[in-house]
């Protein structure tokens, strides 16, 4: 039986993780829960699940990881505040089921250096799909990774048409219900840009060999193309319980987590190229990812501020920040030689990105 800590338990990922665990009491015991600010909801979850140890906020979550014995930590926190719990889980030797991509992007090489082989397991559906497909070959046999995107609610719109979209429109995602920040990021395709950086850090594939294609049906979650010309894809109906379950029980699968595809029914799956002019976030992510250092942290910080500005009415469009704020904020600061100094350098880069992004959203 695996002892599990679930962080972000009151959010979309956390709620679904609790559902998965509740259906398999023979496999899991929840020993800790953490939430951001929903104290009453957290207390109710702890009561229902019979969990003694809880944490409110990222700092308490880090303490929870260090003080409670656990085999697996599911980090479902939203945003770069998840970095501390990610580092704590790795340092304490826990298997880290990572849904908090921002902590990997901000922590970069420090996170990678702390992770032992098999210790860091992706929970994002795209990266879970890639991890599964990579079982079909060796690293030397991989030609490229293909990350799929639904295209979000604004698929097919031009750059000009996106200038006056509203927060309500941005949250009307056709496939996923993932909370305000992630759903907004999916609308701007910043989420896909972050996923490209995450794919590079997780699987050590160069950016020029990571592509994004639009797949509106969201049935194929990502693909791996091999040197012989074959491609392995992971397909399933869009259901986050599948990658959550695999992340908690990696490398083993569990019975009947989700509903499989009915291959006897006629269906059409389509693929189309990404419009980089209307949605420049992915191209910019590749640029900042290749630049390295604190650039990815600044990209993430600028986006976090832009999302807040958009939903508070301080920015006119959720998609228009990317080429202006994002491309003008990267810092030239280089991380120091020690891992902890490197991490602080990235955090400093992120903090420097936030006021610059705030100024741009006020001016825009």
UniProtKB/TrEMBL annotation:
Q: Where is the composition biased (Low complexity)?
A: 315-332
Compositionally biased, Basic residues: which spans?
335-364
Q: Note whether Cell inner membrane occurs among the keywords.
A: no
Binding positions (NADPH):
10-13, 36, 100, 102, 179
Residues bound to 1-deoxy-D-xylulose 5-phosphate? 101, 125-126, 150, 173, 186, 191-192, 195
Supply the EC number(s): 1.1.1.267
Name all DXP reductoisomerase C-terminal domain ranges: 236-314
Residue ranges of domain 1-deoxy-D-xylulose 5-phosphate reductoisomerase N-terminal in the record: 4-50, 54-108
Q: Where does Mn(2+) bind?
A: 124, 126, 195
The cofactor required is: Mg(2+); Mn(2+)
Pathway field: Isoprenoid biosynthesis; isopentenyl diphosphate biosynthesis via DXP pathway; isopentenyl diphosphate from 1-deoxy-D-xylulose 5-phosphate: step 1/6
Pfam families cross-referenced by the UniProt entry = DXP_redisom_C (PF08436), DXP_reductoisom (PF02670), DXPR_C (PF13288)
> What one GO molecular function would you report for this record?
isomerase activity
The catalysed reaction is: 2-C-methyl-D-erythritol 4-phosphate + NADP(+) = 1-deoxy-D-xylulose 5-phosphate + NADPH + H(+)
Which protein family is it in?
Belongs to the DXR family.
The protein depicted here goes by the name 1-deoxy-D-xylulose 5-phosphate reductoisomerase
> Which species is listed as the source?
Clavibacter michiganensis subsp. michiganensis
């Amino acid at each position: 039986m695996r002892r599990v800590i679930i962080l972000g338990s009151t959010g979309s990922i956390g709620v679904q993780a609790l559902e998965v665990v509740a259906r398999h009491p023979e496999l899991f015991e929840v020993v800790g829960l953490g939430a951001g600010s929903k104290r009453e909801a957290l207390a109710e979850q702890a009561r229902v699940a019979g969990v003694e140890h809880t944490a409110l906020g990222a700092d308490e979550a880090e303490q929870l990881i260090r003080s409670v014995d656990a085999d697996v930590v599911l980090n479902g926190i939203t945003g770069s505040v998840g970095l501390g719990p990610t580092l704590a889980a790795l340092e304490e030797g826990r298997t880290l089921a990572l849904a908090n991509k921002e902590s990997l992007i901000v922590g970069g090489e420090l996170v990678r250096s702390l992770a032992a082989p098999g210790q860091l397991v992706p929970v994002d559906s795209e990266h879970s799909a890639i991890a599964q497909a990579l079982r079909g070959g060796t690293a030397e046999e991989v030609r490229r990774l293909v990350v799929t995107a639904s295209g979000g609610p604004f698929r097919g719109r031009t750059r000009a048409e996106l200038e006056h979209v509203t927060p309500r429109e941005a949250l009307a995602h056709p496939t996923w219900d993932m909370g305000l920040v992630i759903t907004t990021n999916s609308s701007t395709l910043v989420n896909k840009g972050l996923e490209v950086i995450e794919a590079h850090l997780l699987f050590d594939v160069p950016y020029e060999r990571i592509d994004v294609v639009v797949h509106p049906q969201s049935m194929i979650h990502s693909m791996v193309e091999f040197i012989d010309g074959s491609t392995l894809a992971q397909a399933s109906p869009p259901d986050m319980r599948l990658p959550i379950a695999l992340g908690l029980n990696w490398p083993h699968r569990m019975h009947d987590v989700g509903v499989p595809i009915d291959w006897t029914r006629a269906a059409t799956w389509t693929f189309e190229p990404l419009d980089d002019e209307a949605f420049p976030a992915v191209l910019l992510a590749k640029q900042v990812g290749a630049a390295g250092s604190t650039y990815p942290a600044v990209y993430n910080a600028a986006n976090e501020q832009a999302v807040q500005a958009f939903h508070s009415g301080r920015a006119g469009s959720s998609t228009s920040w990317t080429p202006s704020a994002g491309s003008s904020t990267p810092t030239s600061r280089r991380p120091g030689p020690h891992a902890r100094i490197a991490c602080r350098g990235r955090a400093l880069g992120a903090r420097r990105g936030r006021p610059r992004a705030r100024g741009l959203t006020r001016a825009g």
